[in-house]
Amino acid sequence: NAGVTQTPKFQVLKTGQSMTLQCAQDMNHNSMYWYRQDPGMGLRLIYYSASEGTTDKGEVPNGYNVSRLNKREFSLRLESAAPSQTSVYFCATTSGMVNTGELFFGEGSRLTVL
Amino acid sequence: GENVEQHPSTLSVQEGDSAVIKCTYSDSASNYFPWYKQELGKGPQLIIDIRSNVGEKKDQRIAVTLNKTAKHFSLHITETQPEDSAVYFCAAGGSGTYKYIFGTGTRLKVLA
Fold first, then answer.
1. Which of A13, A66, A86, B78 keeps 20 to 30 A from B8, CA to CA?
2. What is the pLDDT of residues A40-54, one digit of tens each?
3. Does any CB of chain A come closer than 8 Å to the CB of residue B32?
4. Chain-chain contact of A105 with B99 (C-beta, under 8 angstroms)
5. In the prediction, which pLDDT does B52 show?
6. CB contact under 8 A, A98 and B44
7. Neighbouring residues of B80: CB distance < 8 A, sequence distance ≥ 6
């Protein structure tokens, strides 16, 4: 039982390159989230998916796209990476709405954009 | 927009002393307040949470208090131990929504 699995764990990109961060959960959860963590700024929500087939913008969606491929998988794509997207990215899942269950996080993906 | 302020950003305490971290939220519709602990190189993990119909909740050495009128909630850790050293995040969310808004984090160092 792996919980929330993120790949890759580390990635270095050049400005303008594209990449996709993958997240998979085996907890049978409905809701999935992508956060970024920057020093002094905490965890900021990029996109979330309340359930399979739906996605919504969070606080900082610009420069990102997401796909909820199925109930288990939620990917985050950077189409043209910029240095400002250097960050640690966390995927998280929960069973449903706020207050219905714990938010479980993956171990993070550290992205550097040169 | 919705905002959660968290203080202090860093906190150093001697082993055995208490630590207090405070958060203030802006959205009066928030009614669920979890606290997360993040160890180095790991994802955050829930340590305690409180709902708006409760003023205080305890779990061994950890307690959380909530003042809905003032929109404040706090994490209290007593008898701190070196393994309590980590980054702590508060968060706020409202029933009927999917969004959790996180504070900026507090780096707690427990000095042996």
1. A86
2. 888 999 999 999 999
3. yes
4. no
5. 85
6. no
7. B13, B14, B15, B16, B17, B18, B19, B61, B108, B110
